[in-house]
Amino acid sequence: MTCEWLEEEGMQASLVNADARQYLPFESDSFDGLLSTQVIHHALLSEVRVTIAEIWRVLTIGGIAFVTVAGRKNEDETYEEVEPGTYVPLDGIEKGLPHHIFSEEELRTEFGVFQIREIKRRAEGKVLALWLMKVV
Questions:
Q1: What gap in Å lies between CA 78 and CA 92, rounded to an integer?
Q2: Are 103 and 130 in contact (CB under 8 A)?
Q3: Taking Cα atoms as reference points, which of 72, 59, 37 lies closest to residue 114?
Q4: Maximum distance among all alpha carbons in the chain?
Q5: Residues sharing a CB contact under 8 Å with residue 88, sequence separation 6 or more, in sequence order
Q6: Contact at 8 Å (CB) between 20 and 39?
Q7: Which residue has the higher pLDDT, 1 or 41?
Q8: Most exposed residue of 40, 41, 56, 130, measured as fewest CB within 10 angstroms of its CB?
Q9: What angle do CA 87, 90, 93 make, to 5 degrees?
Q10: pLDDT tens digits, one per residue of 48-102
């Protein structure tokens, strides 16, 4: 789909298909910026921690990241809690996909290796948005 869109727009880009819950296929200190919207919370917390470590690893010193995660569950869906704070919808379009729901305090802990520039609640609290910077 992305390749088709790029072609339609007359654009080119190097694309890599990778699982963010595992080691990313990039050298350390490769990127000055990183964007992750509504992706990394779709995992168990141990896997989310791997992704956070990988974001840290691939960013350059002074690099920034904008990350959004789930801040609360959808009220109209039924869930099974599979570990503290992680829920799997039993129905709906994301049925079977884990959702780790973050509090602001937990974000500060889990992303503590970064300088957290800002945390904002969006979409009536369903989304938490973070501006992060990698500092020494």
A1: 9
A2: no
A3: 59
A4: 46
A5: 79, 80, 82, 96, 97, 98, 99
A6: yes
A7: 41
A8: 56
A9: 100
A10: 999 999 999 999 999 999 999 999 998 888 999 999 999 999 998 899 999 999 9
Q: Can you read off the two tokens belonging to residue 60?
A: 């350059």
* pLDDT for the residue 44: 96
Token couple for 106: 């937990």
90: its two tokens = 């039993």
What is the DSSP pairing of strand 59-70 with strand 99-100?
Answer: unpaired
Tokens of 24: 């990313």
Say how far apart CA 3 and CA 118 lie, in whole Å: 33
Q: How many residues does the chain have?
A: 136
Quote the CA–CA distance of 130 and 104 in Å, as a whole number.
Answer: 10
Q: Edge-to-edge, what's the strand order for the sheet holding 86-89?
A: 79-83, 86-89, 99-100
